[in-house]
Amino acid sequence: MKTLIFVLSFLFIATSWAEDTCVIHEAQDLYKYQDQILALAKKAKTPEALKNEMQSPLRCLVETFKDSDDMLTKYVAGSCLQRLMGGPEIQGFKKNRAHDIVFQSLINQQLEQSDLLTKSEISDFAQGKWQEYIDFCKGSVTELLCSELLPTNDRIKVQNEMLGATSMLVLKSAYHQFSGETKRKIHQQITKLYRETSKESPLKRRVIEQIYREINKPSIELRGS
Length: 225
What we know:
mainly alpha, 12 helices, 71% helix, 0% strand
C-alpha cells in the first residue's frame, strides 16, 4: 500500500513538473503558452492567483524571446509578448477582456520589483529587443545609422506602460554600447525623458528614474594615488 502511494505521489509530482516545463519543438508551440496565460485570466479567482499561475508560461515566452537563436522562434515569442503587453491587434489575433486583465497584472508585477533594470519581465524582454537590434546592426551598418533606429521620445510617450518602459530599457542598452557623440545624444534623450515622463505613468516613471540614476552614477575615485 505504501509503495502504491509512493508511486502515485511520484507520478503526480512528475506530471506537475512536466506541465511547468517549457517544451518547444517548433515556433508554433509558443502560442499554447500565450493561450494558457489568457485562459488563466478568465478563471483565476484573485489577482494574486493569476500572478502566481501565469509565472511558468510567462517565463517560457520571455526566456525564449531573450535567448533563442532561431529567428522564427524569437519572432513568435516576441509577438506573443507584444500582445500580452498591450500591443495592437493584428490580423488573426483579436484582443479581448483577458488581454486587458493580463496587461494590468503584468504592470502590477513590474511595479512590485525593486530592480526593474535587471530583475523584471520587461528587462528580459528589452534584452531580446536589444539583441534583435544588435543583429541588424552587425557588419557594414554604421553606428550613426543604427542610432537613428532607436526608439524616439515621441514614440515612447505614446506607447503604453509596458512597451514604453521596454523601449526605455533599449535606450539604456544603447547608451552602454555606443560611444562618443552617439552616446552623448542618447544621454540627452534619456535626460529629456527623465524630465518629461509623468508620474501618471508610474511604470515608465520608475524605469526612467532608475535608468537616469544608473547612467549618472559618479565615477569612483581611486584613493591613495
